[in-house]
Amino acid sequence: MATDIKEQGKQTPHEAQNKQKNNGTESKKNLTSSKKNMPLADDKKLAQLRAKLRRQEARRKLRELVIAREIMIGENGALPKGLHEVVAFDLECAGYVEDDIIEIGAVRINLDDDSAPLAYFHELVHPRTRLNKYVTQMTGITMQDLAGKDTIDKVMPRFIMFVGNAPVLGHSIGDNDIVRINLAIRRARIKGIKNFLPRYIDTEKIAHRIFDGKEPEIKKFGLTALLAHYGIEIEDSHRATDDAISAYRLYKKLVEEIKSQAEK
Known about the structure:
Nucleotidyltransferase, domain 5; disordered N terminus
């Protein structure tokens, strides 16, 4: 005689199938509910990651544009014909984000007669973030010094006007300073200025081309280290104008090095 499944407390195949469907539906509901109840911190982290990736991509594209503008020094140390002036410049930044510029220093130099600079540019800039204490230790610049100073959207047009059509010169400006200026221009949405892409001479890149793979090996390519290699001391390092002048002094030594190697 057939046994009655329901009477013995067992599930019929139809009931088991319905229960499985119900369990699947409950699981989906629980998953949806857990997603809705996910901590807001996770959403914030995801947004921060996406913003970081966007900044990295923007920097990469900017760097590609900047690299194409480098002026190459000839094997005999010569610059392209018709180049008679250059603006040596340097930046100091607040220390938390790379485009938060707090100081711009620049010197216009006559390459045919560099006995005296043609003009100077120097401005402190009020930061959009806070000042890193390490930056204060290096530069001596404090928030009191920056209080009441113009923000970057006011200072940058004056600097770009000072540069004009002249090529610029500096240490590691191809990878850093020019890119930072462009990031600052984009963030501040400065009216009438889309970018800053002058032709440029980068003393760090020149030094690498001269010394990489040579003996004695040079391990440090910072401005201070390379000047020390030539026995030159910086009077006030990590201040924009002084570093701009020092970069030009290094450029002259590097050109002499190129000429010396060409004569061998």
